[in-house]
């Protein structure tokens, strides 16, 4: 009984639309701008910036802005030798990938608020 109910829900157009909003297909990810955050383990500045970025992007889902079409990609520099040699002494590093070009954004102050961080990123866009 439950299995047949689930099957009927999956065939329902409303269910299909609702579930497609929650997951991004690979094609949808390619269409969106990616915010790249280069971090490393045990880095309090990295964790703070990541938390603020997640808050800004969550808010952007409900209040349309320049960041509404962005997704966050966190990259651990210790997993890639090229990233480690480039950013070992500079993390956290925030960049934006628009198409195939990666642009490093100017560093935001560590004590900046989420609102100021959003303004900082939008200015760079």
TrEMBL record:
Q: Which UniProt keywords apply?
A: Electron transport, Transport
Superkingdom is Eukaryota
| GTP-binding keyword on record | no
Q: Does the keyword Heme apply?
A: no
Please report which protein family the annotation says this sequence is part of.
Answer: Belongs to the glutaredoxin family.
Q: Which PANTHER family match?
A: GLUTAREDOXIN-LIKE PROTEIN C5ORF63 HOMOLOG
- Name assigned to this protein: Glutaredoxin-like protein
Native source organism of the sequence: Chlamydomonas eustigma
């Amino acid at each position: 009984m439950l299995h047949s109910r689930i099957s009927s829900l999956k065939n329902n157009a409303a269910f299909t639309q609702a579930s497609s909003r929650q997951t991004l297909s690979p094609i949808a990810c390619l269409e969106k701008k990616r915010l790249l955050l280069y971090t490393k383990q045990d880095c309090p500045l990295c964790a703070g910036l990541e938390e603020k970025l997640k808050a800004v992007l969550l808010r952007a889902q409900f209040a349309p802005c320049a960041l509404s079409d962005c997704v966050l990609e966190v990259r651990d520099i210790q997993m890639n030798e090229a990233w480690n040699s480039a950013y070992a002494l500079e993390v956290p590093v925030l960049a934006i990938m628009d198409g195939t070009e990666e642009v490093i954004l100017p560093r935001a102050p560590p004590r900046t608020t989420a609102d100021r961080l959003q303004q900082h990123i939008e200015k760079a866009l």
